[in-house]
Design goal:
Layout lengths: L1 E5 L9 H11 L3 E4 L1 H9 L3 E6 L14 E2 L5 E2 L10 H15 L6 E4 L30 H9 L4 H15 L10 H29 L4 E6 L2 H7 L12 E6 L12 H12 L7 H12 L9 H6 L4 H13 L4 E2 L2 E3 L5 H10 L4 E5 L3 H6 L1 H9 L1
Helix pairs in contact: 3-6, 5-6, 11-12
The protein binds zinc ion (ZN).
Length: 374
């Protein structure tokens, strides 16, 4: 099975060339990461993929570019701007065009093309660090204008998002009145995100039609919430890499299932209308995952069962029909071999790891060599 690694250096192995040759020796076939890592991998006879962010850039650091909640309050999220700002998107496509011209590479993978997830907002002291509240974005004037131009009921979606915010902040709200608006909001997130991802894919193919297009995408449990549609992208993406991180140990972990779901539960704890059982039932309903047993956000935070890797891979397999499915899993997963096995059983074509770590690479070398040879 084809194995990928994200990156090829760490604090112990600073020499990229050595990192790449060791990966090759173990049987890895692909490296994703910076343009220089991808180029070096290509020079070593491996497949090199350049990874790029989406809604960032040196000229967009002013607060004017931040996403806004339904009342116009600014929110930082994932070091990104409002996800629909025209100049930011154009800058990203220019950057993609430049990266796609990297000699010898096999393709370009986009990361962070989405709206804020519950765990994307920083919990800090900054005026715009609002933690999970960053999820309730973006309703800036440009997003409202864009939503209208795309045929969405912008006012209804903003009102509904505001009422959902009130609900999880303890106010009595009958959410059933706002389902239409919430649906419009999610559909706008999807349409606006798909639009940029199509432009990304077109840009890559314009530079070189032989290049592969890929995406680091939220797992099926969370992808709809952030506007990433597996189905929409099928004509455009050659490679899907769902980020199936089940036991991420760091405090901040956007996209990581254990962190995102734990933050969702904490958010729902804000509503006195929901008891413990109702909260987990609601979260199971939203994500389609069986989450009984994870009622306590702290338990959830410690990590989800490794079998969920299989279920998330299976669902991604269904929705990415006909395309290469290369889930990216945690390289420091204490049950790495089982996580790999579950990925395989879920229907993955290839497996990718986040992120390069020379110690784990040596510890797990026999397991990886076996997997690569299969
Ligand atoms: Zn906006």
């Amino acid at each position: 099975m084809k194995l990928w690694m994200y990156g090829c250096t760490d604090e112990h192995q600073k020499d990229a060339a050595k990192g790449i040759s060791r990966l090759k020796e173990i049987g890895f076939s692909a490296v994703a990461g910076s343009a220089s890592a991808a180029r070096m991998a290509a020079e070593e006879g491996m497949e090199g993929y350049v990874a790029s962010g989406a809604y960032r850039g040196p000229d967009f650091r002013s607060d004017d570019y931040l996403a806004q909640d339904p009342w116009g309050n600014k929110c930082r999220w994932f070091s990104s701007t409002c996800p629909t700002r025209k100049e930011v998107r154009e800058y990203n496509l220019e950057q993609i065009r430049r990266l796609a011209a990297t000699p010898g590479i096999k393709g370009v993978i986009i990361d962070g093309a989405r709206f804020s997830s519950p765990s994307s907002g920083p919990v800090g002291d900054g005026p715009h660090d609002r933690g999970t509240d960053a999820f309730f974005t973006c309703f800036c004037p440009e997003c409202m204008k864009k939503a209208r131009s795309m045929g969405f009921d912008a006012d209804e979606m903003r009102t509904a998002a505001g009422r959902l915010y009130d609900f999880v902040h303890g106010k009595p709200v009958n959410l059933t009145w706002y389902m239409y608006g919430l649906h419009q909001w999610m559909e706008f997130r999807r349409a606006a995100t798909t639009e940029h991802l199509i432009n990304f894919a077109r840009t890559v193919k314009e530079v070189n039609p032989e290049l592969k297009t890929g995406i680091f995408i939220f797992t099926p449990a969370l992808s709809d919430l952030v506007g990433q549609s597996y189905r929409d992208l099928r004509p455009w993406m050659d490679i899907y890499s769902p980020m199936i991180y089940r036991c991420y140990p760091e405090e901040s972990g956007p996209a990581c299932l254990n962190v995102e779901l734990s933050d969702c539960l904490k958010m729902l704890q804000g509503s006195p209308a929901l008891d413990e059982e109702a909260r987990i039932r609601l979260l199971s309903g939203i994500t389609g995952l069986e989450l009984t047993g994870y009622e306590d956000p702290e338990i959830m935070r410690q990590g989800l069962d490794v079998s969920l890797v299989r279920e998330e891979t299976r669902r991604a397999r269904v929705m990415s029909l006909g395309r290469t499915l290369a889930p990216i899993i945690e390289f420091d997963d204490p049950k790495l071999e089982s996580a790999m096995e579950n990925t395989r059983k879920g229907g993955a074509d290839e497996i990718s790891f986040f992120a390069y770590n020379s110690e784990i690479l040596e510890q797990q070398a026999p397991v990886l060599e076996r997997a690569a040879a299969e």
